[in-house]
Design goal:
About 30% of the residues lie in helices and about 25% in strands. It is an alpha+beta fold. The protein has one domain: Creatine Amidinohydrolase, CATH 3.90.230.10. Strands 1, 2, 4 and 5 form a 4-stranded antiparallel sheet that branches. A 3-stranded antiparallel sheet has the order 3-12-11, with no helix packed on it. The longest helix has 24 residues. The relative contact order is 0.19. Bound molecules: 2-amino-4-trifluoromethylsulfanyl-butyric acid and cobalt (II) ion (CO). Cobalt (II) ion binds next to loops. The site of cobalt (II) ion has 5 residues, from loops.
């Protein structure tokens, strides 16, 4: 069942999204060679709590941290660690869900550390652009498959692969609601988009093959071939005026 949100509820989610977007903008300034992913996690948890909200990921199905911090070949759900010292040329994706008064917002962002190789920078640029290709399709009357296909077509034309095992989702007072939002697949298929739906679009692109494997910790997802992976995620509402970004950073 897809839970349709009122404009009032969407505005409550937008308040959560504003805290999340502000947190990402602070993290962007912190990321430098020498910082650990645990320092970023500690900062994010404090930032969220200082704004009267809570980090929804902490404790979610036993997940132990406020953020996921996924470095280089880690696709998603990497554990923050004080041993993970970021170095020049690395990429790291920070994923967070903010709960403000019971309403959620979800956004992941990839960051380059210091100077990146051109191919790595291209992975970040294409992954972010693929998110916006998907968002463009998030209009009343289109189908989920139109979002999926726009992302896949663009990503593959640029020479990257699209992860299959992790997808976007409906979101509201729960982190994961219907519908599912894959980032690959045919256009013109799937659920038709209606006013008041709120979803995430969160493409993960790999330099090599799309296949993923999970570490012994039961969470950390990596590329099977060891290639780099990036991710950008927004939460957005379907409205009569087009997609409304809940987690907009501008
Ligand atoms: N934010 C993630 C998503 O996009 C969820 C991470 S799993 C968690 O769905 F356990 F860390 F919460
Ligand atoms: Co999500």
């Amino acid at each position: 069942m897809i839970v349709i949100k009122t404009m009032d509820e969407i505005m409550k989610m937008k308040k959560a999204g504003e805290i999340l977007a502000a947190c990402h903008k602070e993290i962007a300034k912190m990321i430098k060679p020498g910082i650990t992913t645990m320092e970023i996690d500690t900062f994010a948890e404090k930032f969220i709590r200082d704004h009267g909200a809570t980090p929804e990921q902490k404790g979610y199905h036993g997940y132990p941290f406020a953020t996921c911090a996924s470095v280089n070949d880690v696709i998603c759900h990497g554990f923050p660690s004080k041993e993970m010292v970021l170095k020049d040329g690395d990429i790291v994706t920070i994923d967070m869900v903010v709960n403000l008064n019971g309403w959620l917002a979800d956004s992941a962002w990839s960051y380059g550390v210091g100077e990146l190789e051109p191919k790595t920078q291209k992975l970040l640029d294409v992954t972010k652009d693929s998110l916006y290709k998907g968002i463009e399709q998030a209009i009343i009357g289109n189908r989920i498959g139109d979002i999926s296909n726009a992302i896949q077509k663009y990503a593959e034309a640029e020479g990257f692969s699209v992860v299959r095992d992790f997808i976007g989702h409906g979101i509201g007072s729960k982190m994961h609601e219907e519908p599912q939002v894959p980032h690959y697949g045919p256009a013109g298929r799937g659920t038709r988009l209606k006013e008041g739906m709120v979803i995430t679009i969160e493409p993960m692109l790999n330099v090599g093959k799309y296949h993923a494997k999970i570490d012994e910790d039961g969470w950390t997802a990596r590329t099977v071939d060891g290639s780099l992976s990036a991710q950008y995620e927004h939460t957005l509402a379907i409205t009569v005026d087009g997609p409304l970004l809940i987690t907009d950073q501008s």
